[in-house]
Amino acid sequence: MRKTKKSEAEVAKQVNALLEGMSLAEKVAQLAQIGGAAWNDGPGAGEIIREQGAGSVLWLNDTAEFNRLQKIAMEESPSGIPVLFALDVIHGYRTIFPVPLAVAASWDPAVAERSQAVAAKEARAAGIHWTFGPMLDIARDARWGRIVEGAGEDPCLGSAMAAAQVRGFQGDDPTDPQRVLACAKHFAGYGASEGGRDYDPVDLSEAQLRNVYFPPFQAAIKAGVGSFMSAYMDLNNVPATSNRWLLQDVLRGEWGFDGFVVSDAFGVGNLLTQGFAKDGRDAAQRALEAGLNMDMASSVYLENLADLVEDGSLSLDQIDAMVRPILAVKVRMGLFENPYTDETLLEKVAAEPESREAGRWAAQRSMVLLRNQDGLLPLSKTQQKIAVIGPLADSMEATEGSWMVFGHTPAAVTVLEGLRAKLPGTAIAYAPGPEINRDVPHPFGEFNTSERKPIQTPEEAEAAFQTALETAAGAELVIMVLGENADMSGEFASRGSLDLPGRQEELLKAISAMGKPVVLVLLNGRPLSINWAAEHVPAILEAWQPGSQGGHAVADILFGDVNPGGKLPVTFPRNGNHAPLYYARTLTHLPEESPRYRSRYWDSPTTPLYPFGFGLSYTTFAFSHLHVSAAQIKAGASVTVSVDVTNTGQVAGDEVAQLYIHQKWGSDSRPRRELKGFARVTLQPGESETVTFSLGPDELRYWSASAGRWVQDAATFDLWVGSDSTATLQAGFEVVE
Ligand code: GLC
Fold first, then answer.
1. Residue 712 lies in a domain
2. Quick check: 147 and 525 in contact, CB under 8 A?
């Protein structure tokens, strides 16, 4: 974390004084994060804290209980060290914001920063000091459930969103009582789990790690993030939890990170399950030596570290080195002076209109218009018979989406409610149609606040299907709200197919066959292979999981009060078995750019259904006057790229100018396109704006597999600027020695 009310010298002095007075048991306790609820079958959190203190408590969301445990820590534990209360506040605490993948689709870091600032304010008002966010995993396999929690497939966009989220969560004053400590997770490479299967092993080259998966984490450090979380999975056969190269050599040695690292849940204990550690002692020693400061919930540190010091396997200095950054965070945040939370604060903060406004604004800016045949949208507000159909149309849970805060009860404005609020004088009929459910129940189901409904029988589903048809038949316009339930993406929510679950497409086809205008609104946490809809449904709005105000934002866009300007942060494959599919791939010897080689499978086209960066508007834009400040530069110098963006349509709107480069040869083969700059601009009809980008060593160097180091090659570069990753407006420049 950045600036502190106390100087770093004062912080260090206070930390050293604390360490001098602490027993080994107390130091070990600071390296433990314990479950708040009666989670572990061992002693409750209060007893552990009373006896030796605790670094942190998680999975508790109760202000009074926070204060009770903190009082024990301050007044009854041996050294009176406050506890850090931690929880997953990923996209909102009481005001739920669009899921992070949706926020990335805004291509506007201000959306990420403002959303996380509101989340921090509400979470801190509840007594939470530390959030397990932002999640920074680059994800290029849409089958992976946790793609919903990150910023998509691209390191440039992902890095901008990483820094913005850290700024939102932490602000720049660690004593600010409206901010929380952020946690860059899951370090590193988790998004490349084989087959998109959550938790599966990851094999990534050093070049892939450094060029693609590391940049968002480096951006988070630059923004001052105070903690990291190691990932669950094996990274090149070494669990990230205990990966010295990752946690010591790279994170501390190269990047100079001075915060602390917490494992993922039970990660230290999992080292046995993963076949890496022989026993708890082995796990504790190797994780600590690898640079893991805090053991989340597994108790292996608590049970083994003191013995390892006493038998000389670990030194007291090694323990102190792990405890220091944890104490430093508590000192910087002022928790010794202000350990408690006003229990009346949350309701006041949560009632602030600004939060709702921010939620609606974020949802509006994150939605992506995928199709608008013959300008069906925006819809007229004049009287017409509207039917809203689909299992998600009135689902608060699907509207708020994945990774809800522990104990949160969904309370979103659903799409149906948003539409009815928009058209108070219009009778809007509604039928859900058949429900959708996971085939394999979610293993954490009992912890997800879920609208538990009994599973429909086939007969009930068929009856619901027919009722939906009848309801649609009576309307002049049908708005279908389809996609995924909240538990169909997120953790332990990978899937093999990207099709619409259940009988949703069947229902969509049957209603489309009625010959009346159909608008499809998608609520989902990942790309979906909506191939049929993309051909046959005239209007498609990607609304993602838009949060508390999602229904209002959908209505704002469908009825033209807001012109959508979002762009896809991930490629939409035509089929789940095409994944991983992403734009920034090297050319191969038979580039797909040639029509002859466009598909790599003989049974289907492998071009994306929708490309990275794609999104439509109610107006149109043109890019012109692309200019590069120099045709040739020396390595180490920069060029400025400028382009004019013009609103060539009839209504105001936002465009996202995107700059892509391709290094045509070099030490390594380089991706055919790489995003190196973007800017979202708002333009009135006829208005133009010149957007400029800079390309210098930071943008042009890369980690070379052939050289085994960072290089900036002398080479020729193509570049394109436009409205998505298929941009055609082209220029170029050369880098010489
Ligand atoms: C989970 C997730 C991690 C989360 C942690 C604490 O298993 O992997 O993202 O922060 O446990 O809830």
1. yes
2. yes
pLDDT along the chain (737 residues), means of 10: 74 97 97 78 81 95 96 97 98 98 98 98 98 98 98 98 98 97 98 98 98 98 98 98 98 98 98 98 98 97 98 98 98 97 97 97 98 97 93 98 90 98 95 96 69 82 98 98 97 97 98 98 98 98 98 98 98 97 96 86 94 98 98 98 98 98 98 98 98 98 98 98 98 97
Q: What is the CATH number of the domain that holds 626?
A: 2.60.40.10
Q: How far is the CA of 445 from the centre of ligand 1 (A)?
A: 15
Q: Domain containing 387 — which CATH number?
A: 3.40.50.1700
For residue 265, give the ligand 1 atom closest to its CA: 11
Cis peptide upstream of residue 186 (ω within 30 degrees of 0): yes
Give the Cα separation of 343 and 175 in Å (integer): 19
Residues annotated as catalytic (active site), given as ranges = 264
Backbone dihedral angles phi then psi of residue 731, each to the nearest 5 degrees: -150, -170
Q: Let me know whether 633 and 715 are in one domain.
A: yes
Q: How far is the CA of 557 from the centre of ligand 1 (A)?
A: 34
Mutate to test the pocket of ligand 1, among 88, 130, 233 (most ligand atoms within 8 A of CB): 88
Closest residue CA from atom 7 of ligand 1: 265
* Residue with CA nearest ligand 1 atom 10: 132
In terms of domains, do 556 and 478 share one? yes
Q: Are residues 627 and 695 in the same domain?
A: yes
User: Closest Cα to atom 12, ligand 1: which residue?
Assistant: 88
Full domain range(s) for residue 637: 621-736
Residues flanking ligand 1, CB < 6 Å: 88, 132, 185, 264-265, 491
Residues 688 and 548 in one domain: no
- Integer distance in angstroms from the first to the last C-alpha of the chain? 39
Q: What's the structural domain count of the chain?
A: 2
Q: Are 153 and 139 in contact (CB under 8 A)?
A: yes
In a domain, 694, yes or no: yes
C-alpha 526 – ligand 1 centre gap (Å): 19
Residue nearest to atom 8 of ligand 1 (CA): 264
User: How far apart (Å, rounded) are the C-alpha atoms in residues 408 and 448?
Assistant: 9
Compute the distance between CA of residue 568 and CA of residue 611 in angstroms, rounded to an integer. Answer: 7
Centroid of ligand 1 to alpha carbon of 87 (angstroms): 9
One domain, residues 522 and 385: yes
